Amino acid sequence: MGSFEGDLRGARILVTGHSGFTGGWASLWLAQIGAEVHGLSLPPETTPNLFEAAGVEAACASSAFADIRDAEAVQAVFDRVRPDLVLHLAAQPLVRRSYRLPIETYAANLMGTVHVLDAARRQEQVKGAVCITTDKVYANRETDYAYHEGDRLGGHDPYSASKACAEIAIESYRSSLPSWGVDMLIASARGGNIIGGGDWSEDRLVPDFARAAARNEALVIRNPKAVRPWQHVLCLCHGYLTLLAEITRGNRAVSDAWNFGPDRADCVTVEEMLKRMAQHWSSLKVEVVPSIQHEAKLLMLDSAKARSALAWQPAWTLAETLAETTGWYRGYYEDPSAARAITLRQIDTYRGRIAAPLPSAGTAHA
Ligand SMILES: NC(=O)c1ccc[n+]([C@@H]2O[C@H](COP(=O)([O-])OP(=O)(O)OC[C@H]3O[C@@H](n4cnc5c(N)ncnc54)[C@H](O)[C@@H]3O)[C@@H](O)[C@H]2O)c1
Asked: Which residues are in the NAD(P)-binding domain (predicted)?
């Protein structure tokens, strides 16, 4: 068992975005360690989806479909659940969709976060919240530089800017708590490109690869040379759960922003990812269709703070991440009813890895 898990056993945790990819994995992990998980999301929007495939709803003590853009709806869920802790993942998370739907993206990502934090600060039993933003919150100079938490926020596309706005709102809530007489801790987590089984979102490399491989179709990509900090979803959940546990311990230093990035060697190009995934699954015909929409070409995170202050480090390398991820999708396409067992087995494998002493982080990390 990870050292943080005991702190979360029995905790009543509201997970927003539990019907999504990351929220599904986080909810199942939390339920597995004996937390009382309550979900708040919109219904899953893809078919298939992890929520149904892995039985996420059944693992939750309650599950509500409500819109975080609606302050009263969010408050009603808080009034019913009365959580000890909040893991806020719900968002419009897609860059290309944000160009099509900028208003909806700001409404969900900025005002949705404000609605969640405002409901949280009105309930005295809430010990704290962990709000998930993204590595894209930094004003990206597109140079060989790994961003650290103090770097300037920015955002070219509406998604990135909406998450940078959310970071400013989070910081403001953190600073305003004493003025409201509220004792609560608020962390924000900035992770990289999250991959793992059960994601079927549009315009993401691994889901696009899985769909194309399952149908034996060509894979269309936009930026073969783009470098991303690829990470398994469990490495991120590990960071998020560590922050929640630190909140339950009353560690005030946790009320801050945190980067969770992979080792530098695991920040590779899209092209390289395709080569490595093909080794595990199948070689696909790839078509490069450049997009007129701007997307960052180079993005890396400096996670030294999380590594030293939280003793967090990704327990799976990119090679392990790709083996587990392709294994998940292959298992699913062979037998969709196996998805829950595969997901729980991967969570157990990851938990086993972090329960064992980790090798030292080394010097070269992003
Ligand atoms: N996947 C990545 O690579 C990545 C990287 C960095 C940060 N993130 C962040 O992690 C979080 C989870 O991302 P994901 O990839 O699991 O996304 P996802 O699309 O799989 O899940 C999004 C979740 O948010 C919910 N949601 C969206 N709009 C909502 C609304 N208006 N009201 C209530 N619920 C709403 C959805 O129902 C779903 O449960 C997001 O905040 C995202 O920005 C993701």
From this structure: 14-325
What is the extent of the structural domain holding 179?
3-192+231-261+300-316+339-355
SS (H, E, C) the chain: CCCCHHHHCCCEEEEECCCCHHHHHHHHHHHHCCCEEEEEECCCCCCCCHHHHCCHHHHCCEEEECCCCCHHHHHHHHHHHCCCEEEECCCCCCHHHHHHCHHHHHHHHHHHHHHHHHHHHCCCCCCEEEEECCHHHECCCCCCCEECCCCCECCCCHHHHHHHHHHHHHHHHHHHHHHHCCCCEEEEEEECEEECCCCCCCCCHHHHHHHHHHHCCCEEECCCCCEEEEEEHHHHHHHHHHHHHHHHCCCHHHCCEEEECCCHHHEEEHHHHHHHHHHHCCCCCEEECCCCCCCCCECEECCHHHHHHCCCCCCCCHHHHHHHHHHHHHHHHHCHHHHHHHHHHHHHHHHHHHHCCCCCCCCCCC
Pocket test for ligand 1, best of 21, 69, 105 (most atoms within 8 A of CB): 21
Which CATH number fits the domain that encloses residue 344? Answer: 3.40.50.720
Domain-located, residue 226: no
Give the pLDDT score at 296. 66
22 CB near ligand 1 (under 6 Å) = yes
The pLDDT assigned to 133 comes to 98
